[in-house]
Specification:
This protein is an all-alpha fold. Helix content is about 60%, strand content about 0%. It starts with a helix and ends with a helix.
Length: about 140
């Protein structure tokens, strides 16, 4: 009988561990889906650049200059996606003359307030860049 109790305890402990691990994985998957580049893009970029990145989002007609078609960045850069330039533009360290000085938000500062540290800001901008790179036209 003692052997049965010990075996039962071991199996029960393993079962509880597996259920807890599965629940943790589901929660982690849900978190990472929310933290995707696509979702960050929708939150921060799509209003001006549109969901498809073509530059005709609902706010675009309110701007002085038409937002950039983000699907053409690589094509306009000789077939190479300009990752550093895109990072600098999103972060706000590079002035985009076509936007003037006030139309393109300085996202780096805003993300710092939201995320609290530079590593999180870099990760967020990096995910947005990965998404923008994924929508490049050939």
């Amino acid at each position: 009988m003692l052997y049965f109790k010990n075996t039962f305890k071991i199996f029960f402990t393993i079962a509880v561990f597996l259920v807890a691990t599965m629940n943790f994985q589901l929660a982690a998957d849900s978190f990472y889906q929310k933290e995707s580049g696509y979702n960050y893009y929708l939150d921060s970029c799509a209003a001006c650049h549109a969901i498809d990145g073509k530059g005709n989002g609902p706010m675009s007609e309110k701007l002085t200059h038409q937002p950039k078609d983000l699907t053409l960045l690589a094509k306009e850069n000789g077939g190479s996606f300009p990752e550093t330039m895109v990072y600098q533009i999103i972060d706000g360290r590079r002035v985009v003359l076509s936007h003037g000085t006030s139309e393109m938000p300085v996202w780096g500062r805003r993300f710092k307030v939201i995320d609290g540290n530079e590593q999180a800001v870099d990760r967020r901008i990096g995910k947005i860049i990965e998404y923008i790179e994924s929508i490049q036209l050939q």
